[in-house]
Amino acid sequence: MRSLPRWSVLLVLLPGSLAAQEAYKVEELKQAPPSSIAPEIASALNSQGYRIVDGQGKPFAEIWLRTSIPATAKPSGAKGVIQFPFLAESELLGVMQLLGEAHDYRDQAIVKGVYTLRYGIQPVNGDHLGVSPFGDYSLLLPAAKDTSLAILPRKQLETKSAEAAGSSHPAVFFMLAVPWSHTGAKPSMIHDAEKNTWRLVVPLNLAVKAEPNPVTYPVSIIVVGASEGA
């Protein structure tokens, strides 16, 4: 299948003129996911989520993770440029509600609203040489048009994600592995002063095939920052 041209490196949320220097933080959100989410998706989510707030305490975005994410094996490190080889492409990770307009790494506008988050792998083609050291992403899809837990073919995944940006280009977040030792074993924000980015660190609850007990595995998603050329 042909993929859509050139994924952006990551999704960066830039509400208005807020700068990445602000001290973003994450807090527990003791409320259910939005009622507009399709029943099949909603039934797979944790009843409580996380809220990102900016330096003035203004709510920035909210996320609800999937209660149990299918995994083919226990995490054991990257496989080449893929950090999460145990996840199936387009597997549902959770739902995010943007509380203001967002912009991706190429400055595509993402309107506030509710989106599903699905795991994606950067296409291997000439358009993406040198874009990033890893190929793992989570893609935003309009929740109103993503109503099933079923795995989506890559073309459909990318096309639906592009609708989140109102363009021909998927709306993506850059995902990175991170050890719990960096975060105190709880959700947190990591600031990269050199790159001027903020990463949200949250735990994925994995249902590993043939394993009797769930496995908790942290991931980080860059949610604030901008390319030097943006």
Defining key terms:
230 residues, mainly beta, 3-stranded antiparallel sheet, 14 strands, 7% helix, globular
SSE topology:
Blueprint: E1 11-12, E2 25-29, H1 39-42, E3 49-53, E4 59-65, E5 69-71, E6 92-98, E7 102-104, E8 109-110, E9 113-121, E10 136-142, H2 154-165, E11 172-177, E12 188-192, E13 197-208, E14 215-224
Parallel strand pairs: 5-13
Antiparallel strand pairs: 1-7, 2-3, 3-4, 4-6, 6-9, 7-8, 9-10, 10-11, 11-14, 12-13, 13-14
Describe the structure.
The chain has helices at 39-42, 154-165, and strands at 11-12, 25-29, 49-53, 59-65, 69-71, 92-98, 102-104, 109-110, 113-121, 136-142, 172-177, 188-192, 197-208, 215-224. With 230 residues, it is mainly beta. The chain has one domain (11-224). Strands 2, 3, 4, 5, 6, 9, 10, 11, 12, 13 and 14 form an eleven-stranded mixed beta sheet that branches. Strands 1-7-8 form a three-stranded antiparallel beta sheet, with no helix packed on it. It is globular and about 45 Å long. Mean pLDDT is 83; it is low at 1-12, 14-21 and 126-131.
Question: Could you tell me the strand content as a percent range?
Answer: 35-45%
Shape: globular
* Total helical segments: 2
Cα gyration radius (Å):
16 Å
* Uncertain stretches: 1-12, 14-21, 126-131
Overall tally of domains: 1
Tell me the series of helices and strands, N- to C-terminal.
Answer: EEHEEEEEEEEHEEEE
Mind summarizing the main beta sheet?
11 strands, mixed
Proportion in helices: under 10%
Tell me, rounded to a whole number, the average pLDDT: 83
- The strand count comes to 14
Helix-and-strand structural type: mainly beta
Distance between the termini: 30 Å
